[in-house]
Amino acid sequence: MPNSSTLIPIEDINPSEVFAGEQLDVLLKQIRSEAISDDIDLETVVGRKAIGARAYAVSRSKTTIDDAGKTLVAGWKAKAKVVDTARRKSREFLDALRDEVRKPLDDWETKQERIKQEEVDKELAKLAEAEAARQADIERKENDLREREEALLKAEQEAAAKAEAEKAEIERAANEAAIKEQAKRDAEKNAADAIEREREAKLDAETAAKLAAKQAEKDQKEAVELAEKRVRDENERAAREQEALKAAERAEQARLADNLEHRRTVNVAAMKALETEGIEEDIAKKAISAIATGLIPCVKIDYTKQENDQ
């Protein structure tokens, strides 16, 4: 019978049989058959609890089967570990035995390789010696050829130098004759040029004299005109200054006359004011005259013009 928390009888599970062949499929179908039921009423509390219990039982069945598998695998792993240890021991032993058995052959092959290498080295040494001799012979032949070429080149250079010297001598003689001829032509040309320059200088002197005379006449005329202009300008300036002085004098005279008239008017007004106060005209006139001339201290007549008087 199934356990209350599983859908399969735990005691019936044999891991070796369940995880081999089709036994697992049979077990899973059995669990499904126990878990699925159509006669449960979801409208009742009992029915809903029954569904929850069956779902939980499915989970527990899963855990039971999985634990059984783990137990089986753990046993296999322990056995595999023992086998792996034995395998490693056998590999190490047999590898060492193989090396021990093969060592004489390896030693012989190593010796043969050394012998072959020594023979190769000897052959290479012979080849190197032969190559060195060949290179020395080539170098000797090249030196001989170079010496012959240098001797030939030296002879050619000496011949060329001699020919060049002869050519230079010929050219020098030709140049010397050409220089003399050119000097003669230059002397003749220089003489002709000197005559021409003298003629042109004479003409230039005459022309310059005429131009100088004209320029002197022009300069004299301009100087006279400038002097006359300066005299006119000075006369005009003096006339302007004289007129300005006269205008200033007239203005000053007018100002003095106006001022004198103003003072007289003020004095008359002051004198009449004194007369109004009962002072006789003759005494009032003397008093005003004394005040106006500053004979009486601390008393002054205000001659300032009022705006309506200006």
What does this structure look like?
This protein is mainly α and 310 residues long. Among the domains are: 15-110; 209-251; 263-295, no CATH class. It is 84% helix and 0% strand. The radius of gyration is 78 Å and the shape is flat. The two termini are 151 Å apart. The model has no long low-confidence stretch (mean pLDDT 84).
Number of helices: 4
Mean pLDDT: 84
How many extended strands?
Answer: 0
Q: How much helix is in the residues?
A: over 70%
Low-confidence stretches: none
Tell me the Rg in angstroms.
78 Å
Task: Report on the biggest sheet.
Answer: none
CA-CA gap between termini: 151 Å
Overall structural class, as computed from helix and strand content, comes to mainly alpha
Order of helices and strands: HHHH
> Approximately what portion of the residues adopt beta-strand conformation?
under 5%
| Principal-axis shape | flat
Helix and strand arrangement:
Elements: H1 15-18, H2 23-35, H3 45-276, H4 281-292
Features:
single chain, 310 residues, mainly alpha, 84% helix, 0% strand
Give a short synopsis of this structure.
By secondary structure, the chain is mainly alpha-helical.
